[in-house]
Every structure is written in C-alpha cells, then in structure tokens.
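Today's session is about reading a structure prediction critically. Students often jump straight to the picture, but the first step is always the sequence itself: look for stretches that repeat, for charged clusters, for runs of hydrophobic residues. Only then move on to the predicted structure, which in these notes is written as discrete structure tokens rather than atom positions. Here is the chain we will use throughout the hour.
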Amino acid sequence: MTEHTSEKKTAKVGQLVEGNKEPSSNIGREGLFAYFSNSWLEFKKVVWPKREDAVKMTMFVIVFVAVLSIFIYAADTAISWLFFDVLLRREG
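Below is the predicted structure for this chain, in token form.
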C-alpha cells in the first residue's frame, strides 16, 4: 500500500515539473494583463456585507480601539509610577 502511494506522489511531482514549461522571461504584458484580469474576476466574487453590518463592525472596532488605548495608557502610567516613584524613590 505504501508503494502505491509513493508512486502516485512521484507521478504528481513529475506532472507538476513537466507542466511548468513556460519560460520565466515570458512574464511581460501578458502576465500583467492576466494578473489584473484574474484580480478583477476575484473582486467580483467578493460578498460585501450589508451597510448595517458594516456600521456595526466599524463601531465595534472604534470602541475596541478606545478601550484598548485606555488600558495601555493605564498600564503605562502604573508601570511608570511603580518604576520611578517606588523603585527609584524619585519625586516629581
């Protein structure tokens, strides 16, 4: 059974190597045009959220960033107070 599996893997690897016969110097305008064409096709597949959902998610992100900012400010202030006033006994 393992011999059969390894034969399949070897065959697949051989197919991948053989299938990639296009020279890399051929990536000129056709490659760029194909890239933008494929990007546009993928862009059309995107399912955009409804406006209500987008507003809810945006508000959640704004509130989360505000809460996180307050937490970081409080933690920074506490660590600064602990380091300078308690450990170094420096006033001011």
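Discussion point for the tutorial: The chain has a mean pLDDT of 79.
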